[in-house]
Design a protein that fits this description.
The chain is of the alpha/beta class. The protein is 13% helix and 23% strand. The protein is built from five helices and 18 strands.
């Protein structure tokens, strides 16, 4: 049995949509069906192509990829380490890419060759071969990792970068940072961003926040700075927590429910530090437990807690959380769309802040009308909950992304955001 978990596909220059922990894990599997899939051990070696990337030399391309690696490697509360290994033995092109790229075929030698290739598609021919002639005009890059059905460990993965498109160095670093995030297991994050429709009927993508307020793992590449958002830092820390993570973070755990205490699946939950304004997010029931459970690592401070629905444009390729891949999935069904609501606890009409203390957990019951309660809790580590077997059918988690969203629109605005 083969299982295609998820695909992410975006366009350059055109808005084409449709083909969490903060941020959240991309794949939930394991023998219990509720464990985020991750690389273990957390040191992952990738093997770079020896060819060119469009107008860039091989050395130039390598340097940009390593810049993206460094952003993730520099997170002190994460154990993930991405490193460059031996280069691939040949230049990869449309005639031989199938020899190195893992897929969901149980008999594909590339699935067990010990390589995690980063392929430089010099002229877009590989992407055209994979997805059809002309698709290289739209797809800037893709990444994927293979794992066994019912397993919780990635076996191998790959990334393909398109050299055909006229992207800046900043675009490429942002693309690789996002794609490598998918490669090692991070999902998209909506955060507190509401891309409402404009008078023309098109969503106001990349224009409702300053660019530094968009996370790297936002479904579109709106963040132009070569840095991680605090939500990205919390997300990788939750998926690959360091042994001393409790020295830097506290945690809010809880459930999001309706007035009848029924779990609300696939809602966007976000928290805001009342002093710094820093924001973090997760999707309710992101571990597929049908309880409305959520859990977020947070630095010490006071936070307001909020809920809304996943944006209606974030399905398929741009999905957020495990319930938004199809337009018929729970994130888009009743009781969604829900009215935006803030946690008020026992004081209706007034936002109640929740204090997060380093090394401690807080349990929250969050009801759809804003009511609820908090109590002392403990810090949990869902990733380490259970270890599953590493046998069975191959399952391909496919994360295809040309995450250089709306390049044309972005460059027609000053600095890529509304002033």
């Amino acid at each position: 049995m083969l299982y295609l978990y998820k695909s992410h596909l975006f366009a350059i220059g055109l808005l084409i949509c449709g083909t969490a922990l903060a941020g959240g894990p991309l794949a939930i599997e394991g023998s219990d069906g509720h464990t985020p899939v991750h690389y273990s051990p957390a040191t992952v070696t990738l093997n770079f192509d020896i060819g060119t990337l469009g107008s860039r030399t091989n050395a130039d391309a390598d340097a940009l990829v390593l810049q993206a690696f460094a952003l993730w490697n520099d997170v002190a509360t994460s154990t993930l380490l991405l490193q460059q290994g031996n280069d691939l033995s040949v230049d990869i092109d449309s005639s031989n890419y199938m020899n190195v790229i893992p897929d969901s075929s149980a008999n594909n030698p590339a699935n067990k060759d010990g390589l995690n290739p980063v392929v430089y598609d010099d002229d877009g021919a590989i992407i055209d071969a994979m997805f059809g002639v002309g698709q290289s005009d739209n797809i800037a890059g893709l990444a994927a990792s293979v794992y066994y059905l019912d397993g919780d460990k990635y076996l191998e993965g790959y990334a393909v970068l398109n050299g055909k498109l006229a992207l800046t160095n900043s675009d490429i670093v942002g693309l690789v940072t996002h794609e490598i995030g998918h490669f090692f297991g991070l999902d998209h994050s909506q955060l507190d961003i509401d891309n409402t429709e404009t008078d023309s009927g098109s969503p106001a993508v990349c224009s409702t926040k300053f660019q530094h307020q968009y996370p790297v793992m936002y479904p579109f590449l709106c963040r132009l700075s070569s840095s991680l958002h605090e939500d990205d830092v919390a997300a990788i820390s939750a998926l690959y927590p360091s042994a001393d993570i409790a020295a830097s973070f506290g945690q809010i755990n809880g459930v999001f429910v309706d007035l009848g205490n029924n779990p609300i699946l696939g809602a966007n939950l976000w928290l805001k530090n009342t002093l710094t304004g820093e924001t973090y997010s997760i999707v309710s029931d992101y571990l597929l437990q049908s309880t409305g459970f959520f859990s977020v690592y947070l630095p010490a401070g006071d936070y307001t807690l909020h809920a809304n629905s996943i944006n209606s444009i974030f399905f398929g390729a741009s999905s957020v959380g495990p319930y938004s891949y199809l337009e018929t999935d729970p994130s888009f069904q009743s009781p969604h769309p829900i009215a935006a609501v803030s946690f008020q606890g026992n004081t209706p009409g007034f936002e109640q802040s929740i204090t997060v203390t380093t090394g401690q957990g807080t349990q929250v019951k969050f009801v759809i009308d804003g009511s609820g309660e908090t109590s002392a809790g403990t810090i949990i580590n869902p990733v380490a909950a259970k270890s599953s077997s590493s046998s069975g059918a191959f399952s391909l988690q496919l994360v295809l992304a040309a995450l250089t969203i709306l390049v044309f629109m972005r460059r027609t605005r000053s600095h890529g955001f509304n002033s």
